[in-house]
Structure formats: structure tokens, C-alpha cells
Amino acid sequence: MSEPVQPIINASTRLCAVYGFPIRHSASPAMHNAAFARLGLNWRYLAFEVHPDNLRAAIAGAKAMQFSGLNLTVPHKLLAMQIVDELDESSKTWGAVNTVRFEARDADGKWQPLHHFPEAISGEIRTQGFNTDSDGIARSLREDLGLKLAGLKVLLVGTGGAGQVAALRLAMEGVAELFVTDYVIAKAEAVAEEIRKRYPRVKVTVGFPKGEMDLLLNATPIGLKPGDPSPLEEKQFSLRQTRAVYDMIYKPAETKLLALAKAAGCKTSNGLGMLLHQGAAAFEIWTGQPAPVDVMRRALEQNVYGK
Known about the structure:
Blueprint: E1 14-20, H1 28-38, E2 43-49, H2 55-64, E3 69-72, E4 86-87, H3 89-94, E5 99-105, E6 111-113, E7 125-130, H4 133-145, E8 153-157, H5 161-172, E9 177-181, H6 185-198, E10 203-206, E11 215-218, E12 244-247, H7 256-263, E13 267-269, H8 272-287, H9 293-305
Parallel strand pairs: 1-2, 1-3, 4-7, 8-9, 8-11, 9-10, 11-12, 12-13
Antiparallel strand pairs: 3-5, 5-6, 5-7
């Protein structure tokens, strides 16, 4: 079966993009463009390196050019909460935005995604922020590591946008104990306090555990750059203390942390599954059509693993 070919770019092509800093590692364009091609959509997905100081202007620019949607990655997910015009319940629940949809009012005054309008919009356009990371990380942990989250003992390293979402989702899933740490301790303490308010049955501690863990989850960007070390030191936490390690980084496919974890006998997974499932949800938010998940998965594997 031959691969589908996207329509030629023209003046009617709809655009989506991912903003990050850095961004050149991103496999999202490969995933989304493969999905657009499979459904025969005249859409394209791009990647732009946007410094946090320029995020507001970059989102405003996409709005002015009538993009259909955006993804936001490190370090923009928390900052975007203060920038978008409207927050979906998902972003309010998890406290971060990783998906933005541009919307306009229809003839009845209801807000609709821009793909509902065949012509360019002359009236007001708004941004609505969503979070698809929460479902993405929970599903990936189950599928890729075979974990049942309820009752687990978990160490989470990094409490930025994705880390905060992961911490709250793990608490909602009913983990027994959650240790959170960050190089900015105040950030970890804020996340821990939020968990104590929302999920008082979960025992949450700021810092590294001394006992055995079921899962270590890295939500820091340490590992993205060539030569990056592990995000934690042996004296802080030994990988022999945990039976599974999940690194949200997916490119490189094996970070220093994952290599060390394998050597220590841990079950391991990178963040490709999380990227896939959050991306499929974003695709559906923008297009209103079911995402071709298998196509998106193959595109990611080709991009990351070259197979």
C-alpha cells in the first residue's frame, strides 16, 4: 500500500505548529504531517524555536495569521496559562497548557474551531488552552511499562509544566507515595502542597526517598542535549532502588538516565508513548476528526528510531 501524499501547499493550507525552547529535537511535525496526509487534509505542522520572553508575541502572531492550533513544549506550558484567552477544563484541572486551539464565532455567536469556516475570519479570534499531557502520561505508563498506577511508590524529578501535570495525575490515580523534587525546591513544594489539598490520601514528600520505589519518572529537560548527564546523582538516589524508570525525553531515544537504568536492571521507557497520545488528542481538538494513531506511531518510530 502506497503512502498517502498531502495536498500541495496553497493559499488554503491550514497551519499548526509547536513552540519550544529548544525545539529542533521535536518529532511532532513528523507525527502530525503523517496524520494530515493519511486523512487527505490540506494542513501542515511546523516547529518554531520561541524564547519564553517572546511566547505572548508568538501566540498573537499565530492568531493574526489564523493558524488552526499550537502545541507548547518546554518551557512554555505554565506561562501559557496566563496568555491564552480561555482555559478548557483540562488545563484548569492540571494547571498547564500544552495545546492551543484558535476559535471564532459562528452565525449563532458560538465559538468554533477555525476549520469550521471556509473563508478567512474577519471578526474576533480567541485562543483556548487545553492539556492533553495528563492522559498521555497515564496511558503511556500503563502501556509502555505495564504499570497499574494505584498503590505505587513514585519518585518524580522535575516539577515544571509536564512534571506538575504528571504529579497531579499520579495523585489522582491513587499512588500510595509520591516524592517530588526539583532544582528549584520552591516549585516542588508548591506542587506537593497542591496535591495535599486535592488528594489528601496520597502521601507526598519533597525530596529523595531512602527506600525502594516502583517508578522513577524524569520530567526535566536534562538529557535532551548531547553529553547531558543523568538528572540525578547516585548519592541522591540509586537506580537500584527502583524497578522502573520513565524518561519523558524521547529524542535521543536512550538518555544517559535510561542507559544507567537498564544497566541497573530496571524496566525502562522513553517518552514516545506520551508524545503519541497527547499528540493524537491535540489532533482531534484541532480537526474534529479521529486521529489515525497507528499512522502517527509509525511516523514517530521512523523519526526517533529510524525504522
